[in-house]
Amino acid sequence: MSLAGQAHAPSWYADSVAETPLRAPLRGDHATDVCVLGAGYTGLSAALSLAERGYRVTVLEAHRVGWGASGRNGGQAIVGYGCEVDTLERLVGNADARRLFDFSREGMALLRHRLGHYAIECEWRDGHASVPINARQERSLRAGMDTLVERYDYPLQWWDRQQLRSQLDSPRYRGAMFDAASGHLHPLAYAQGLARAAEGLGVVIHEASPVLELVRGERPQLRTASGTVTANQVVIAGNAWLQGIAPELERRIMPVGTYIGASAPLGEERARALIRNDMAVADVSWALDYFKLSADNRLLFGGRASYSALPPPNLRGVMTKRMRQVFPQLADVGMDQVWGGYVDITRNRAPDWGRLTPNVYFAQGFSGHGVAVTGLAGAVIAEAIAGQNERLDVFERIPHGRFPGGKLLRTPLLVAAMSWYKLRDVLG
User: How far apart are CA 153 and CA 88, in angstroms?
Assistant: First the structure.
């Protein structure tokens, strides 16, 4: 287990924001209205939403604000969830699937509102393109787009290969589903901005304060090595890093490693020639590539998920090769940095939010699709704590199963399953 208060993983993100002083670790015994475990997007969003409603809130973070996936991810903020709407329809029916999708649109609106209202500077850019590599992917993507446009009233555009090449200088893709409402941001700067906004409303954040135990009861308690916080309600927002706090939740998610590289600086002209409209891009393979430009004209290129939870060998070389497959014109460009971390996936890739007990709430299972909907999760949980349960009730109707195999076998079984999907992508 890593040490409490561990610094952010080395990354372009960490290097490109100002270092903040360590917030005081928890010392002694305290009481509050709501205690939140985790200072990533979900926990900070819940704290902010609760503080906006007048609640006293304390947040406990094992390391630093945004230390986990919230400070290391690809920064792509996309409407929807980790699963497609047809999966939601199978799980909860058409009516609730429509509600859930509309909620995700509200989550994107909330993100944009908070960037402006709280003056969060995180390099927001509009636009996201989902791109197919082969004919099967193109058919599936176009069918999914038709569903969203015709039945979910969500405006999307289909770009043919020529139109896509006018914005994205890569020969790899057959077209694009372009979403003007989605976009991308600097993930660590966004997490830090949420923390400042919450603290401005009175939220207390303790860093270097790993929770050792959740004590359930009429007034639940979170215990660390040096103190306790007793509250009327608790929010569990640890995602892939619960480490024994709530075993029944951990069985329903799988930590998956994912990796990002930052190219050497390209210069403005060369960078803008790659992605002329500065959108974010992701392909639709199981082992997907995703990328965007940074404010200092680098290509930030992600992918190469590791379902074994072990970093791939020669990660820098692998990421460089994948980048050059997409952009052959970068044959002379290497990766200055590569880094990674865990995302938490559910078996059905649908969000897993709800109540562990009547006064312990949780949100997890963002399945690599959490930049926008984590804000929604925090708002929905805050509503439920305030007595407005309607939206959380819809999420609780999504069925979730355990990963098969228990702790010893669930990772090997998932590796085997994912190998089939990767082979299918290769074969087209």
Answer: 16
